[in-house]
Design a protein that fits this description.
Length: 217
């Protein structure tokens, strides 16, 4: 039986994984979640689904990338590990292949600042990193770099990733990213939407700096 703190972390991660499934952000085994734990992280196993995920199936990955024999973490474990190394304030990572994130990411362009809620991710757009093979060090590096001043990014021809101070924050940001991408796809049915101006963005960030609105990472 793992220590109480580890058991609690495992239970929280399983609940978050199932929440992501219930929100429709991942289907079959297309997503992965992790939480910082001790010097390493707990991460969903390869091939996990909402039905198969359990406290015992989660994998602890040590700082050196080692895990117990017989266990296999998600193929994107390097992406999660790189984000934790690059962002000490990040305690949870959510990666999904949600429908509208994938649709926008397959155009290999950032989600533009067409709506003020795009600013909830820390800037005036959501960057999109170049395509790299899933599970690769290149993809992990590019995503971690894109998240230097953002709480979420798109991954070309792939999906999206969000980071947060907690699992609840990271799940919320992943959900918000899907909603924003859906709004963008829908708005383009009427033509390319208007972008907010630099002055409007400056006013938005002044207000959020004062209120904390949108600060989930």
């Amino acid at each position: 039986m793992p220590p109480t703190s580890e058991l609690s972390a495992r239970q929280e991660l399983v609940r978050a994984y199932r929440q992501v499934v219930d929100l429709g952000l991942t289907e079959l085994s297309s997503g992965n979640l992790s939480v910082r734990h001790g010097e390493g992280m707990l991460i969903s196993p390869t091939g996990a689904s909402g039905e198969s995920i359990s406290e015992d199936s989660l994998v602890y990955v040590a700082p050196d990338g080692a895990w117990e024999a017989g266990q296999r973490p998600s193929s994107e474990w390097q992406l999660h590990a790189r984000i934790y190394r690059s962002h000490p304030g990040t305690n949870a990572v959510v990666h999904t292949h949600s429908d509208y994130c994938v649709a926008v990411a397959c155009h290999c362009k950032p989600l533009p600042g067409f709506h003020y809620m795009v600013g909830a991710f820390g800037g005036d757009d959501v960057p999109c990193v170049p395509y790299s093979t899933f599970g690769s060090e290149t993809l992990a590096r590019d995503v971690a770099d894109a998240l230097q001043d953002r709480s979420a990014c798109l991954m070309a021809n792939h999906g999206g990733t969000a980071r947060g101070r907690s699992l609840a924050a990271a799940v919320n940001l992943a959900h918000r990213l899907e909603i924003s991408c859906r709004h963008y796809v829908l708005s383009r049915a009427l033509g390319e939407p208007r972008r907010l101006t630099p002055e409007e963005w400056a006013d938005f960030h002044r207000r959020t700096g004062n209120t904390g609105y949108g600060r989930s990472a």
